[in-house]
Amino acid sequence: MDIRSAQQLAWENKLDKGFNVTDVAVEFGLLTAEVGEAFTAWRKGLPDFGEELADVFLYLVAVAQMNGIDLQGEVERKIAKNRDRVYVRDARGVLHRVEGPPAGAGPGEGAPGGDGPQPAGRGGRRGEG
What we know:
Blueprint: H1 3-17, H2 24-43, H3 49-66, H4 71-84, E1 86-89, E2 95-98
Antiparallel strand pairs: 1-2
Helix pairs in contact: 1-3, 2-3
Protein name: NTP pyrophosphohydrolase MazG-like domain-containing protein
Region (Disordered): 97-129
Pfam families: MazG (PF03819)
């Protein structure tokens, strides 16, 4: 199932059950509560952690639907944007996004941090979203 289909099915379920489909502020509140429940399940090692993450997703797609947002399209665009971003570590190991290389600079040159920081690999402190 793709995100677009899940968004549509979740929306149809809300309509069928008579759940909130108009109050965005309430939906954000419920989404926040579900994030808290997912965190608690993770922290306590509970077996329903995956189900709680699914609840977060369902509230998220509802907020998107309420606002006319094609979440799948947005996610696809954001992944492409993040893939094309370049990050470097400074001398302290902190990641900085490089907006564009300075004229004539090679990889890792002219970036924050002085002595030629290296391009960041996966799992850095920033840049996931």
